[in-house]
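Appendix B, Record 12. Input sequence as logged:
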Amino acid sequence: MNDYILTIEDIGKAFKTEEGTQEVLKDISLQVERNKVLCLLGYSGCGKTTVTRLANGLIPHFFHGNLSGQVNVNGMDTRETEIAALSDAVGTVFQNPRTQFFNTDTDSEIVFGLENRGIPREALRFRLDELTEELHLSELRGRNIF
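Logged structural output:
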């Protein structure tokens, strides 16, 4: 395993639009070392979200279009690796916390990732109890996230 958690090499990305094809990224390369933080800054429409979607595997698995170059996360080629495996190594934190959530109650939100992996309900309950005790979150159980 190398010293990089994320490697993007010579990425080009274009989306199909009603007018034709819109190039979003051209010849982008970057490497993120392990235990480092990367902050993407730029004006609206410059490609920040596209880079994030490349890193977490949403491109090419869910957002299609023309894609060239190579993206590796923790040594895994994002084109060849299932999203579930990629999610063990990379996640996304959104600018607006309200868009980060998939459920409106705390218990469901806490076990969301495990539930999507098909973990049996009994194991979900056990892990929820264990996690909330370990992180001292018991007073937040069963509440609306807002």
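The helical segments are 48-55, 58-61, 83-86, 106-110, 112-116, 121-134.
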